[in-house]
Write a structure and sequence with these properties.
Distance between the termini: 42 Å
Strand content: 5-15%
CATH class of the largest domain: Alpha Beta
Number of helices: 11
Strand order of the largest sheet: 1-2-3-5-4
């Protein structure tokens, strides 16, 4: 069925498949196929039912910010199918730390700009099925996350503090927007590594609507794991991202909000993990519980 759909959509776009279809990734949350064509490699993604919103989200993304996402060749919102062109090489996990920092300093402000462009379209994204993780609803999500992992009394004891974080974030001048929720280096594509204007953000199946700064939880954690918790370069990356929001509030206030948003994001990330592996936990079975336990850490990572 998938290959037939791919070939039909390619033909409709005036493209011909020129070789066999490969299946580079099968996960509980999606299956990805790839094939060579007369227009270069293409990628077909079939999302699981819980992540089916991604197809509709792509239509919003390409309408609002076509220069920051891949422009789908075809979309089937009913079945959660996406047919995408090749977007170049991902930034990847194995870059030397200095190179990764330099790229993120260039790239993350572009993601922040995308968030500001998308903020007026929150209702449209929610209507497309993107999960609501805005600060006002996160106290309810806290209880859902605890239930999803089968209970964690040591985390539940911090519910009043968590509610306070959410209340403070709800007063933020930064409007809710799209949190990629898994913005690690492999989900950042650079068609030309020498030209940051070619950056595209990819793989939106974990996305939620949240305080915008929640999106920094994953990339900053990647850096902190790579460089160590005291690395000044991490603060350099954080500040480059926040620069896009400095018209809204003093920098010290933005820094404090980012800290809170990344802490609160752990609950959203827990629930995203839980929905992704609901049908087949496999090797990721412990991910929701471990993510929620990280809420007990002294810092946001």
């Amino acid at each position: 069925m998938l290959v037939t759909w791919m070939d039909e959509q390619l033909a409709a776009a005036g493209i011909t498949r020129t070789g066999a279809v490969g299946e580079p990734r099968v996960r509980p949350w999606s299956t990805v196929l790839t094939a060579p064509t007369t227009a270069g490699p293409v990628w077909l993604k079939e999302t699981c039912a819980a992540n089916g919103f991604e197809a509709g989200l792509y239509e919003i993304l390409r309408a609002v910010a076509p220069n920051r996402v891949l422009d789908p060749i075809a979309v089937d919102t009913d079945r959660g199918f996406l047919l995408l062109p090749d977007g170049g090489a991902p930034v990847g996990w194995d870059l030397p730390p200095d190179d990764l920092v330099a790229i993120l300093v260039d790239v993350l402000p572009r993601y922040a700009t995308l968030q500001r462009e998308l903020a007026p379209h929150v209702d449209r994204m929610l209507a497309a099925g993107v999960t609501d993780m805005r600060p006002e609803i996160m106290p309810t999500r806290f209880a859902e996350a605890v239930s999803a992992v089968g209970g964690l009394p040591e985390v539940e004891a911090h519910e009043p503090e968590f509610r306070d974080w959410c209340a403070r974030l709800a007063e933020s001048a930064a409007p809710a927007s799209l949190d990629h929720n898994d913005l690690h280096p492999a989900n950042i594509l650079l068609d030309d590594p020498a030209d940051p204007d070619t950056v595209r953000f990819y793989d939106w199946g974990d996305a939620v609507i949240a305080h915008p700064f929640a999106a920094m939880f994953v990339p900053l954690k990647v850096l902190l794991d790579k460089l160590g918790p005291q690395a000044p370069a991490t603060l350099h990356v954080r500040d480059a991202y926040l620069e896009v929001f400095t018209d809204l509030a003093p920098r010290a206030e933005l820094v404090a909000e980012l800290d809170l948003a990344c802490r609160v994001a752990k609950v959203a990330r827990t629930l995203v993990w839980a929905r992704a592996i609901a049908t087949d936990p496999g090797e990721w079975a412990d991910a929701p519980r471990e993510t929620l336990l990280s809420l007990l850490a002294d810092s946001y990572y």
